[in-house]
Amino acid sequence: MIALAGLDLTDRLVVCVGAGTVAERRIARLRAAGARVRLVAPVATPGLAALAAAGDIEWNERPFAADDLDDAWFCHTATGSASVDAAVVAAAEARRVWCVNAGHGGKGSARLAAETTSGDVMVGVVSTAGADPRRTVAVRDAIAQRLAEGALPLRRRRRPLVGSVALVGGGPGPIDLMTVRARALLAEADVVVHDRLGPTGVLAELGDDVELIDVGKRPQHHPVPQDEINALLVDRAARGLRVVRLKGGDPFVYGRGGEEVIACRAAGIPVEVVPGISSSIAVPSAAGIPVTHRGVAGTLHVVNGQDAPSEATLAALRDDSATVVALMGVSALPRFVAAARAAGAPETRPVAFVENGHTPAQRTIRTTLGTAIQDAETHRLANPAVLVFGEVARADLLLPVAVARGEGVG
């Protein structure tokens, strides 16, 4: 019978007999685990020879002898000779040293698991009846994928003395557009402080014991001020909890992530930032609008649509080769458009409004700067929406005009 166990090889001697490519890969794993490696082989791969020359491993440059196992905690043999491997296994057995026989896994006293890690969790897969590396690797890969998707529980039951905060960019909304790192952190979270927009559907996948705190802002309505959000993050992390601040888009693109980083660092709380796909790029993309396009637009200007346009923004609106993307700009659209027209931006400048990007309710309204306010009123433009100004918003840039005009105003 096979029993799966975890071995701490830190600063313990492991003897590796044979110095081919298999041994080179295994020695890399053993060294990564902190083992001291003694290599026994008449010849070695260039990589192993280089490690020995650098003093990173010990190399007995000769055939195996039983006393090579003196003081060893673990042994690995991969000589390519069944008889030599069998002799190594027998010598290890006599000294009660666990031994992996890479040439015939079923004839060693130990097996190396196919491993995957996620944070501080390591998962190993071994065969119980004979060695079947292809099968164990396939199972390992399937588990690794589920871990990466955040579909398996990873949270610590014993809380650390000091917690942590991760500012996670969730992207434009679909769960499958989140990063692997974002999913893994959510799977480990004790507390999730989330916004109204972004991948809120992922919250349903979390355990019932995960604390969910909704701090989502709506136009003209901020139920939880930023200072209180900062205090929440610090308070929960100070209790030794793993906190995820889940945001739509990217934490550093109008997400006030910088303010939250400052608050955490001032309180001595470890904090990391996980980037997400910004809606300034993802939402136009969902509508078939590239924010840059060779020969059309080579500059991207992203602005907070609630602010009065700066001189730089007005210059970009006048520039035929620039794209201006305005976020959170629906309520201030009349003022924004009036400033652009007054600054000399052409009335014919193409404009696109993309509502509810990456959702079943997504809608694209195509217009121009001269008719943008009227068309927004006619089509009852509403939040959330991303506003795109520039030649890339032309209806016929990527799509035939007949197809593009089916979206909204042509």
TrEMBL record:
Domain Tetrapyrrole methylase: from-to ranges: 165-371
Pfam families: NAD_binding_7 (PF13241), TP_methylase (PF00590)
Highest taxon listed in the record's lineage: Bacteria
Gene Ontology BP terms: methylation
Alphabetical list of InterPro entries matching this protein: 4pyrrol_Mease, 4pyrrol_Methylase_sf, 4pyrrole_Mease_sub1, 4pyrrole_Mease_sub2, CobA/CysG_C, NAD(P)-bd_dom_sf, Siro_Cobalamin_biosynth, Sirohaem_synth
Root EC class: transferase
Protein name from the UniProt record: uroporphyrinogen-III C-methyltransferase
E.C. code: 2.1.1.107
Family matches, as SUPFAM superfamilies: NAD(P)-binding Rossmann-fold domains (SSF51735), Tetrapyrrole methylase (SSF53790)
PANTHER family: S-ADENOSYL-L-METHIONINE-DEPENDENT UROPORPHYRINOGEN III METHYLTRANSFERASE, CHLOROPLASTIC (PTHR45790:SF3), SIROHEME SYNTHASE-RELATED (PTHR45790)
Record-level Gene Ontology MF annotations: precorrin-2 dehydrogenase activity; sirohydrochlorin ferrochelatase activity; uroporphyrin-III C-methyltransferase activity
Keywords associated with the record: Lyase, Methyltransferase, Oxidoreductase, Porphyrin biosynthesis, S-adenosyl-L-methionine, Transferase
Gene3D superfamilies documented for this protein: Cobalt-precorrin-4 Transmethylase, Domain 1, Methyltransferase, Cobalt-precorrin-4 Transmethylase, Domain 2, NAD(P)-binding Rossmann-like Domain
